[in-house]
Amino acid sequence: MGTVNKIADLQNRRTLIEQGGGEAKINKQHDAKKMTARERINYLLDEGSFIETDAFVKHRCNDFNMAQTDAPADGVVTGYGTVEGRPVCIYSQDFTVIGGSLGEMNTKKICKIMDMAVKTGTPIIALCDSGGTRIQEGIAALSGLGDILMKNTLASGVIPQITAIMGPCAGGAAYSPALGDFVFVVENTSKMFVTGPSVISAVSSKNVKMEDVADADVHYTKSGVAHFKAKDDKDCLDGIKKLLSYLPANNLEDVPYVDMNDDINRVSTSLTTIVPDDKNAAYDIKDVIGQIADAGQFFEVQSEYAVNIVVGFARMNGSTVGIVANQPAQKDGALDIDASEKAARFIRFCDCFNIPLVTLTDISGFAPCAQQEQNGIIRHGAKLIYAYAEATVPKINVIIRKAYGSAYLAMSSKQLGTDVVYAWPTAEIAVTGPESAANIIYKDEIAGSDNPVETREEMIKKYKENSASPYEAAKLGYVDDIIEPDSTRPRIIAALEMMASKRETRPGKKHGNVPM
After folding, report:
1. 71-96 pLDDT tens trace
2. How far from 191 is each of 21, 186, 214, 225, CA to CA, in Å?
3. Are residues 449 and 398 located together in one domain of the fold?
4. Are 34 and 21 in contact (CB under 8 A)?
5. What whole-number distance in Å separates Cα of residue 514 and Cα of residue 175?
6. Do 196 and 321 sit in the same domain of this protein?
7. pLDDT attached to residue 107
8. Rounded Cα–Cα distance for residues 163 and 88 (Å)
9. Burial 473-491 (b: 16+ CB within 10 A, else e)
């Protein structure tokens, strides 16, 4: 066979591989409102940038009629390319080929591209659409899945790991996305579970349906596994592009810069009216975030899970920051188990990848609830404290209104190593709320008064002025400055600019023992 014929043979082989499971299965994929593995890659990556790796890999299983089973690319497309000019590594499971199942060679391909991502300091993107571990290959397939989980763990904190669940993601394979950084789910098509509904129904003697344990809404609103929800494949891939625009490529890079054409000295007079004078009145903290972020843009993470705390990415003076904020519009912004874990995990991600943290504090305390105590609010709340204390990136905190007790400490207080703490004049910083404090401290005065109600109001006012005032905290150095609300944005940016060269060393150790 001459050179020309060999080239033609190569091109023919490649064409057959690119057809995946064939026209009928591709049509079935489209009928299910899903793109194919290669269509997803081509949509996400810059046009013409994708370089495929290991396209000619084949399985080597001969059991259960597998010797007669052709599996182009062994059910997963791997390679690298660029997204908006920035390099990424990617793998996309091909459901048209043996259901995208994880076999020995399939998992070797995935591990190989993950290794390339770590060696080159490049984000790894996983597009999951698989029936799970390939049963026909037995322990070899299971071992391969274990190798992926090990790679996920070793890559953690080195490169961003982003996963999209664009079909089924079953059994042990569901742990790979959970070991990564961000998980996208797609309405109607994402099915993510460790133990399927049929098994749960058989064991529990209850009729459990797929939508009860595996649907996108379950993991986006209840389990907390998913960080973003999309309406279809294209919306999901657009979301990944947007997320990548905020992230550095690896743990040694600075955050990306995007000129948003927004004046760093812009003041926001509406900040003086967004927050009600009544400290118990609700308001939406996202309105405050919109006033301080470049061009008002905020990319929220887990927007429908643990809604009493808000986390996400914004830009300030063009550079990415991570924002953590109490949400008074939900549960009075109190910290509960889910909110503590949500914020702690986000903080640790930002610290891994050199993303400065901006905290907006307005919190009355940890949720007062017997069930929360029984379920371990002490242990889970400690995760938030640990995350803030452990983080060495620049940390800026603005105390907007309430900051009471241990919740004050947990929300990026000076005591946890926060670099700059500002307070609005409306802030109240105290061991407990003025009402509770007055009942305890001035109990005798109130009880002995001819008009206890009036006396109590006077004592509350006295406590606010003398003990809970932000000026008391500033007097002791726990607040660095008390600022006008409308100047919040320029003051945060100035603090971030000052802290850009921050260097902080910690005691040498293998790693800390995070309160799991």
Report:
1. 999 999 999 999 999 999 999 999 99
2. 21, 9, 5, 12
3. no
4. no
5. 20
6. no
7. 97
8. 13
9. bbeeebbbebbebebbbbb
